[in-house]
From TrEMBL:
This is Benzoate 4-monooxygenase cytochrome P450. PANTHER family: CYTOCHROME P450, CYTOCHROME P450 12A4, MITOCHONDRIAL-RELATED. InterPro entries: Cyt_P450, Cyt_P450_CS, Cyt_P450_E_grp-I, Cyt_P450_sf, Cytochrome_P450_monoxygenase. It comes from Sporothrix bragantina. It holds the Pfam family p450. The keyword Oxidoreductase applies. PROSITE patterns: CYTOCHROME_P450. Keywords: Heme, Iron, Metal-binding, Monooxygenase, Oxidoreductase. Belongs to the cytochrome P450 family.
Length: 522
């Protein structure tokens, strides 16, 4: 009972502070329209829409009604104007990550959630070689192995005449791949047909099985809103612990702990773990290259930092790419998009024929303009990350898209709204891959579209794994579209495929019937 009274007292103090701040308006924020009076005095407007899994849509609708600058929280201005991108996120902008990133941060910061510019630069420098073109090229056999496993799993469902959850199986593929490249061995979710993987409690040592996808999604649903109330983070963390989905976050932590500690033991048992030339990719994957530098010297990173970086990579490496894959297959299988699917298959056919029954090399598929157009249009229409990444305006304030915003205010450009801006993308609500291929390269409209097609953000904080993500998407989309026909198990889904935004804008389950259309050996 005492705990409840303390929580209520804390909530009352925070509420009084927010209301007082609103009326004092020291930062001149009352000039900006709000979607609801609640948004002006508290973070609950955002928290409400986040909890109901549609925050990006609520913000987008607010911009359509109220204009380019909208106050979505007491100290946060969402700015949908395209020219705000360079001001806020560009190189040299000096807009640091805002306090929201503290909400989900653990004992050690990851490259994604550290707010320190110097720490981010050091982490990115240490990790950059893992995402170089050479490293990605060396990973091709590993990626091929998992793509073939996905094709075998799909073919088995086709032979059985069973309904196939595309959303889940492409996620099994990305889980297998990120565990393969990060730890040196895949989780083999594709062979198992589920994502129940091993987890280990760091305190008790208890090993058990937990569903990775649901653990990750549930943990993000309760963790993301903590940062929306920066003045009440201790209170937010206390309340989250009472939520039934809090245990999911602990399960995800235990999953990462199991994989990291098992891989560390395997790496340290190698005769010369620091010798990158002598060891195969399977001997510890990326984790070994994090533990030892290019000279073979141990980096001596604490376990907490290894856990943090691996947690971030398992999250980003499994969730965002699987979202894009499910969305792309869905869009290409819609009845109204048959012409695009057929055009893509015509482009793919000679490349697969030249591969003589084998999976084509990435370099052959990456040269296909319409395949890339279908992927880029998917990322535009249904971006994996749809909300605006928050930044803090530097001291002295800045003019952003024609309006002055005071220093210390949080600002963001909502990704979904940017990618659906009709001044940049004609007919923004329509899937039109040809917008990327049917104009001359120097056409000002195409140049402008490419400038603001930023599903992976931009500037020094842009997603470091975007090249690997494209690599995966090119191979998987090409293979599934070439070898299989898919029909919706529920025809009502054709034209309405729900998005459930936790942190990433995940699509709902996607049940389809696969049918083999081309012979080939998997």
């Amino acid at each position: 009972m005492l705990t409840l009274y303390i929580l209520l007292a804390g909530a009352a103090v925070v509420s009084l502070r927010l209301i007082t701040s609103y009326f004092l308006d020291r930062k001149g924020l009352q000039q900006f329209p709000v979607p609801s009076w609640v948004a002006a005095i508290s973070p609950f407007w955002r928290i409400y829409h986040n909890y109901h899994l549609r925050q990006f849509e609520a913000i987008h609708q607010a911009h359509l009604r109220l204009g380019s600058h909208v106050r979505i929280s007491p100290n946060h201005i969402s700015i949908s104007a395209p020219e705000a991108v360079d001001t806020i996120y560009g190189h040299g902008a000096n807009f640091l990550k805002d306090v929201w990133y503290d909400g989900g941060a653990g004992e050690s910061r990851t490259m994604a959630d550290t707010r320190s510019k110097a720490e981010h630069q050091a982490k990115r420098k240490r990790m950059a070689h893992l995402f170089s073109q050479k490293t990605i090229a060396d990973m091709e056999p590993v990626i091929h192995d998992r793509v073939l496993a996905l094709l075998r799993a799909t073919d088995q469902q086709a032979c059985d005449g069973s309904v196939f959850n595309v959303r889940r199986f492409v996620n099994y593929f990305t889980i297998d791949l990120i565990t393969y490249i990060l730890f040196g061995a895949p989780a083999r979710c594709l062979e198992l047909g589920h994502d129940n993987v091993r987890a280990k409690n760091a305190r008790t040592g208890h090993i058990y099985e937990a569903p990775l996808i649901d653990s990750l999604h549930d943990s993000m649903r309760v963790a993301v809103p903590i940062g929306y109330a920066p003045d009440a983070m201790p209170l937010g963390r206390a309340l989250v612990r009472l939520h039934p989905q809090f245990r999911s976050g602990e399960r995800f932590t235990d999953i990462v702990y199991y994989y990291v500690t098992e891989a560390c033991a395997k790496i340290q048992a190698l005769p010369d773990p620091g010798n990158a030339e002598a060891n195969s990719f399977a001997d510890g994957g990326f984790l070994r290259q994090i533990m030892y530098d290019k000279q073979g010297c141990a980096t001596d990173l604490p376990l907490s930092e290894l856990l943090a970086e691996c947690s971030g990579m398992v999250n980003a490496g499994s969730d965002t790419t699987s979202t894009a894959l499910a969305n792309c297959i869905y869009l290409l299988c819609m009845q109204r998009h048959v012409c695009y699917r057929d055009r893509l298959r015509a482009e793919l056919a000679p490349v697969f024929a030249a591969a003589a029954g084998r999976l084509p090399r990435y370099e052959a598929l990456a040269a296909l303009p319409f395949l890339r157009a279908c992927i880029d249009e998917t990322l535009r229409l249904r971006p994996s990350s749809a909300f605006g990444l928050p930044r803090e305006v530097p001291v002295g304030g800045r003019w952003i898209a024609g309006k002055f915003v005071a220093g210390g205010v949080s600002v963001s450009v909502p990704t979904y709204s940017l990618l659906h801006n009709p001044d940049v993308f004609a007919h923004p609500e329509t899937f039109r891959p040809e917008r990327w291929t049917d104009m001359p390269a120097d056409d000002p409209r195409l140049v402008r579209m490419k400038k603001y097609h930023l599903p992976f953000s931009t500037g020094p904080r842009a997603c470091i794994g975007r090249n690997i993500a494209y690599f995966e998407m090119v191979l998987v989309v090409a293979a599934l579209v070439h070898y299989f026909d898919f029909t919706f198990a529920d025809p009502r889904v054709d034209g309405h495929y729900e998005v459930l935004e936790r942190l990433n804008a995940n699509p709902d389950e996607l049940f389809m019937y696969p049918k083999r259309r081309v012979e080939g050996s998997f």
